Amino acid sequence: MDSKPTAPAPFRVTADGFRNLPSMEAPGIDAFIGDVYTNPEESVMASGFFELHHADEPLDYEYTYDEMKIVVEGEFRLENKDTGQVLTARPKDVIFFPKGSRILFSTPDRALAFYVGHRSFAP
Fold it and tell me: How far apart, in whole angstroms, are the C-alpha atoms of residue 4 and residue 84?
């Protein structure tokens, strides 16, 4: 008996995934983040948008997974809290954060990025 290969799941298009992002609830910081897709079809990937507004203090974030970001709007100042490395990322720049990175995020005004993270699927 021949078995037919299973067809892949259909691809998806989601409009306006960057709108109405939930707050990260960081005291004194207007930071918003939301997955557009969280482990679709049991994938190890998750993706969404991250938005940050200027604040007196940077947002401190520790990565428990590998992640890449593409800056869509604005400018991010990125500082590795452990190594002191400092870089600026602007529109169309691509950023890679290895698992275990402790990053301080800041922006002179506002910045928006699209991210893809390698997160384990949890049924």
Answer: 54
Query: 102-106 and 94-97 as β-strands: parallel, antiparallel, unpaired?
Result: unpaired
Q: What angle do CA 120, 30, 58 make, to 5 degrees?
A: 80
Query: 24 in the Ramachandran plot: left (φ > 0), alpha (ψ -120 to 50) or beta?
Result: alpha
State how far the Cα of 99 lies from the Cα of 82, in Å rounded to an integer: 13
Q: Which amino acid is at 73?
A: E
Q: Which helix (H) or strand (E) holds 31?
A: strand 31-38
Can you tell me which residue has the tokens 């002191």? Answer: 84
Residue 108, pLDDT score: 98
3-state secondary structure at position 95: strand
Name the more confident of 50 and 41: 50
In angstroms, the CA 90 to CA 70 distance is: 9
Per-residue tokens: 118:
């390698």
Q: What percent of the chain has pLDDT over 90?
A: 84
3-class DSSP state of 40: helix
- Segment 101-122, tens digit of pLDDT: 999 999 999 999 999 999 876 6
